[in-house]
Amino acid sequence: MVLFFFPHAGGSAKSYSSFKRFLPKELTVVPMELSGRFTRLAEPLIDNVPDCVSDLIKKHLELLTEDYALFGHSMGTVLVTEFVKQTLAKGLPQPCHIFLSGKNPPDENVHCFENILEAKDEEIVDYFSANALSSNAPIPDEELMRTLNRILCTDVRMAERYKATPEEVKFPCDITVIYGRDDVLMQSVDMNSWSRFTDGKCQVYPFDGDHFYYQQHKEEVCGIIKEKLHK
Predict the structure, then answer these.
(1) What is the number of alpha carbons within 13 Å of residue 209 lying toward its C-beta?
(2) Can you list the domains of the chain with their CATH numbers?
(3) pLDDT, tens digit, for every residue of 102-143?
(4) Which ranges of 28-166 would DSSP assign to H, the alpha helix?
(5) Rounded to 5 degrees, what angle do the CA atoms 29, 13, 209 make?
């Protein structure tokens, strides 16, 4: 079984590596790093969801012949949605389970900015820092900080622009939805509305905590993953 992890805006998929110690050794954990980010910094910085996902499918095509599951947090839920949409269109094998964390469905009008195309980089960085939505702590290396902020702003813009409806993509499996009760982005969202994107079961698990609730609840979140993948 392969478990693909999709990153949040401004984050590296490698940030999920600490999950491994709470997951079975026989589960192959694959971080989906986007082109132009972190371990793939030398590659082009792709700035739209469909092209990012198309690139990921090509890169990991050989793993899509096995049983696999998808986990996406925040922007990662957008990437997961587009991943299913494209793999369905290509007739590729589908996931046995999908985990969606910390974001509303992609057809709902819930956004960080009224018009993301008009938002300046400084506004995006300040908003994400002020609301505990970014994992980028300030560092003394100004050039590296500029690179991290450029990645964050690129990710936020492409995630905010993305739209998909249940008519355009229907998940072919059960889904598990997880979020933090104190997440500023969740205050006007009913996470049960993700159920519209699947004909299977949809179970919702709220945790105490903010946008990165799983930092304090890794073992419990991994317990949910193990339970769902062993049914």
Answers:
(1) 18
(2) 2-229 (3.40.50.1820)
(3) 999 999 988 888 888 889 999 999 999 998 888 777 778 889
(4) 49-59, 75-90, 121-130, 142-161
(5) 100
